[in-house]
Amino acid sequence: MRTIDSLDVKGRRVLVRADLNVPLDGDAITDDGRIRASVPTITTLAERGARVIVCAHLGRPKGKVAPEFSLAPVAARLGELLGRPVAFASDVVGDSAREVAEGLEDGEVALLENLRFEPGEESKDGEARGAFAARLADLAELYVGDGFGAVHRKHASVYDVPRLLPHAAGGLVVTEVEVLRKLTEDPARPYVVVLGGAKVSDKLGVIANLLGKVDRLIVGGGMAYTFLKAQGHEVGNSLLQADQLDQVRGFIDEAAKRGVDLVLPVDVLAATGFAEDAEHEVVEATAIPADREGLDIGPKTRELFAGKLADAATVFWNGPMGVFEFDAFAGGTRAVAEALIASGAFTVVGGGDSAAAVRKLGLPEDGFSHISTGGGASLEYLEGKTLPGLAALED
Ligand code: ADP
Ligand code: MG
Q1: Residue 235: nearest ligand to its CA?
Q2: Where are the beta strands (DSSP E) in the chain?
Q3: Which parts of the chain are coiled coil (predicted)?
Q4: Helices then strands, each counted (H, E), the chain
């Protein structure tokens, strides 16, 4: 991949695809990690005299203008973090975008409105996507792909625009790929992967691929109950992906065959309901009462998992161990995060909620080797899939 050093950007309009998809509460940004991660590339380009036009998406407005998904609050925060004004276009490729793009002087920065207000951005129809991509490309002379969190999407701004303009990968994408390559090519051993969270079916693909690579696979969070059920235990009202049980049984057999140490919870916090103040007690993972749901791993499990991480040389962690948004059920996630920090291993955290958990729990971000801005993107990379946004930057 070419880096931005290879582009002659002075005095030229450079379209930067960034990932600014941050969680919002009304207009308030609750976690600005992705904006901060986008700052270095934009700053470098501006300092080199580029006229920087940033584009990004926010949420899922599905091709329609929806004020609650406006990037306006993000433009304000980006300006604060850059320490330079950010002109904001009130549309994506319309009159405002053209006017803002044409008005830029060397070293100035603008942000376009949410790409996903335009149906062409995510269209499955190559022609519709291409037509939108052409209008986007028309705003600029060069393209920089720096939105790592979106590189697994075959979207106009990610996949089609770099085929229309001379392009390079931004520093964030270069760093993310370097880190993930270390995990896929020749990880120092023991190599331990910790999986949790709620999106079980999304994460099964990565398990199939990882069983051939890891020494230990630790499964916690909402995912673990499908594994416990597959082993024949009752899981009460816990999160369960009933249609994946056969596949999960296959993973359990495969792990045994390959000598991968598959580590599951031995106790859980079983709650009366999904609520911050739900009554709860510690129960054995093999004896979850029918009217309870597991919302966090229990104390014995925290110790077990920490022990399995203590001698690791490489760790990839994706997915919280419990419903960390509720203080009463954040302890398991905290214990695992602390075990990663204490391990001294090369540690990578991937996943929007996992990264948010690290910050919410007040853990030091520099306690980890790398916190990825991409959840889906990092998992698909580890699965060995070709990511459209990276492929487009390679050509
Ligand atoms: P990431 O964004 O890091 O990839 P996911 O999106 O897969 O992680 O999952 C995060 C969500 O999983 C969190 O909102 C958390 O509350 C939820 N979760 C974790 N453990 C459980 C559980 N035992 N039951 C229900 N939800 C859970
Ligand atoms: Mg998530």
Answers
A1: 1
A2: 13-17, 24-25, 28-29, 51-55, 86-88, 109-111, 142-145, 167-169, 191-195, 216-219, 261-263, 267-271, 280-284, 293-297, 314-318, 346-350, 370-371
A3: none
A4: 14, 17
Q: What is the pLDDT of residues 165-220, one digit of tens each?
A: 999 999 999 999 999 999 988 899 999 999 999 978 878 878 988 898 999 999 99
- In this predicted structure, the answer to whether residue 19 has a pLDDT above a threshold of 80 is yes
Q: If phi over 0 gives left and psi between -120 and 50 gives alpha, with beta otherwise, what is residue 339?
A: alpha
- Per-residue confidence at 375, pLDDT binned at 50, 70, 90? confident
Burial of 67 (0-12, 13-18, 19+ CB in 10 A): exposed
Q: How many CB atoms lie within 10 A of CB 352?
A: 21
Ligand nearest to the CA of 318: 1
CA atoms of 231 and 229, how far apart (whole Å): 5
Q: How far apart are the CA of 197 and the centre of ligand 1, in A? A: 3
- The reported pTM is 0.87
Q: 57 labelled as ligand-binding?
A: yes
Show the tokens assigned to 50: 């580029």
- Taking the CA of residue 295 as reference, the ligand 1 atom at the shortest distance is 23
Asked if the model's pLDDT at residue 143 lies above 90, the reply is: yes
Q: Which residues contact 116 (CB under 8 A, 6 or more apart)?
A: 57, 58, 59, 60, 61, 62, 63, 69, 122
Name the amino acid, one letter, at 115.
Answer: L
Grade residue 319 by pLDDT with cuts at 50, 70 and 90: very high
How far apart are alpha carbons 264 and 387 in whole angstroms? 31
* Gap from CA of 378 to ligand 2 centroid (Å): 12
